[in-house]
Design brief:
Elements lengths: L5 H4 L27 H4 L3 H9 L16 H8 L11 H8 L17 E2 L5 E3 L7 H12 L14
Length: 155
């Protein structure tokens, strides 16, 4: 990617812009020929934003490549996600004030709900409450591995 034309597009202004990224809205119908969740939903606020704002789509990396959230969001802000490979773990760590240094690994995950057989029934544990997550985070912090320092935070 080259950005040599960017300077000609820049115009100073005393205005503000709100960029709303509606990530993860894709869905499939629950029944063949049915509507998706978004097609079924009542969306008066989204409809108003669409009517009064400007809409667009972006191709974060290239045709046929479905990026993760990290590379896609970096692309939105003008970074080349191929040249600057940053994972979602690092982005979320930085978002809660953690610093990730060279040689360190940042990992993100979701708490999930499992049934009596140990099968995942809800990959996000019903969007677990912060208070409930805090108890689980304390348990994660108690894990000790030889030669490894672990820091855990709820996002």
């Amino acid at each position: 990617m080259t950005y040599k034309n960017i300077p000609s597009l820049l115009t100073p202004a005393n205005t503000k812009i709100v960029m709303l990224v509606m990530d993860g809205l894709g869905g499939l119908p629950m029944q063949l020929g049915g509507k998706t969740e978004l097609e079924t939903a009542k969306t008066p606020n989204m409809d108003r934003l669409a009517a009064e704002g400007m809409l667009g789509q972006t191709l974060p990396i290239d045709y046929g490549i479905t990026p993760g959230s990290g590379p896609a969001h970096l692309s939105l802000f003008g970074y080349d996600p191929v040249a600057h490979e940053v994972g979602r773990g690092v982005l979320e760590a930085m978002g809660v004030g953690m610093f990730v240094h060279t040689g360190e690994v940042a990992v993100r995950g979701n708490f999930c709900t499992i049934d009596k057989d140990g099968l995942i029934t809800d990959r996000r544990a019903g969007r677990i409450a912060t208070e409930d997550a805090a108890t689980l985070i304390e348990k994660l912090k108690a894990i000790k591995l030889p030669g490894v320092e672990i820091e855990a935070k709820h996002v």
